[in-house]
């Protein structure tokens, strides 16, 4: 490849410890496409060795020019061979790069196959299916004499996993002293990569159902991923992929405004890392222009917005808060919000009993795990029966019905019959998804101290929660009157529940009769779910909510 002056911009050189590699012979600026190359040999990938494969490779090598054949034979080979066919096969196996987006075919490229691996790679490889060439883009400025490096492994993994894969696939042990990151930074970077990888699993969990039932949670995971990618400081292709995931989630829920912005960010990321002529830029450029054409658009309309909804004049950080639908941090003294999807998850977002879900649990020794925070499942009793034991059908915050079986010593008889009513709401601490042998997945409830029933529907409980969020909060000494909505510093507290505030007796009367406080006041005297600091885990809690003296549950 030549620079605009017509001079080559890199050369094949010996690189200590790595065989040969490509080295810049002048400064190459970030964003430069340094390579755009067609394969000289193509093969199916991940296919077992066969006579047919060997014949195909030999025929292709024989058809090469003398220069190409020599260059091919000089590429590194980690496999032992006894004859020419095995030698060719070994070179192909060590070096083939994907030439189909789905990775089903591989190709040998005389220049691209000479680029060595680095975990802090300064260039990005990509098969551009649109122009049918392998391209390499420079991710940051590369200086004269610096080696050009790419990242060999598909998904970014931590150091240990990377080492295993590099040794198995490419036959070398990555020497971290050759990596330009100092050890501490490299470890920090590894932790970030681990977390990106973990979040990837959480984002994919639940498929379309997850996107529709708990989109806020999925968006939250992607938000975390994007922050980590930004801290990594690399223009990794994972970043545009994360933006595309976010676009799909919001569009599936009817939010065209955010969908357009996320799609634009995805396209711009791909453009920088892989060029403006790749399929992703072309396809998703259309998505950025017309998000309503996406196949998932309108599956739900719960976040409905128009395409030009983006607020103007916000500070960049406020704009990001809006874009990612971030939950506002709590003010001191503000009560827990039952609509928080992290603390009060729907069934699909509960941890699975047979997995250690690191979103819910942590460990210092990887043997014993304890919760990172508290959580509580809320569901409305749709039906119940007592056969061998009490069993209920429960409707969760997403409207999904699941079975709840009582495996307590009393098989559910601990609950007073007056509590077990259709339309009442069950709260279960630290609930987990359980796979029953005899019916669909649900919750297996074992400890009577972990359950409480509230004598109102889930809808009513959430509506009450909304009122509490609005009327019990104090901001800079100012509160809002529950009766008339006036904001003032000198309001009087409801003497019974202490949750709501009023200008005077008239407002208190209006709140009592017209705004439903008559029914809610008693409930608010027992706010149980609302008062606890759910994010801080010192010890397990039980109903009525207090911390257990020991950590055994
Ligand atoms: C695709 S080739 C790269 C070009 C190769 N160095 C050559 O001389 O042809 C892959 C091989 O390069 C070597 N290699 C690549 N990156 C390396 C690294 N970071 N450290 C040590 N060896 C590396 C390994 O032997 C690997 O099997």
From TrEMBL:
PROSITE patterns documented for this protein: SET, ZF_MYND_1, ZF_MYND_2
UniProt KW keywords: Metal-binding, Zinc, Zinc-finger
Gene3D superfamilies: 6.10.140.2220, SET domain (2.170.270.10)
GO MF annotation terms: zinc ion binding
Pfam families: SET, zf-MYND
Segments forming domain MYND-type: 481-521
Metal-binding among keywords: yes
Highest taxon, organism lineage: Eukaryota
InterPro entries: SET_dom, SET_dom_sf, SET_domain_protein, Znf_MYND
Start and end residues of each SET domain: 7-153
UniProt KW Zinc keyword: yes
PANTHER family: SET DOMAIN-CONTAINING PROTEIN 5, SET-6
Name of this protein: Suppressor of anucleate metulae protein B
Organism of this sequence: Lepraria neglecta
Source organism phylogeny: Eukaryota, Fungi, Dikarya, Ascomycota, Pezizomycotina
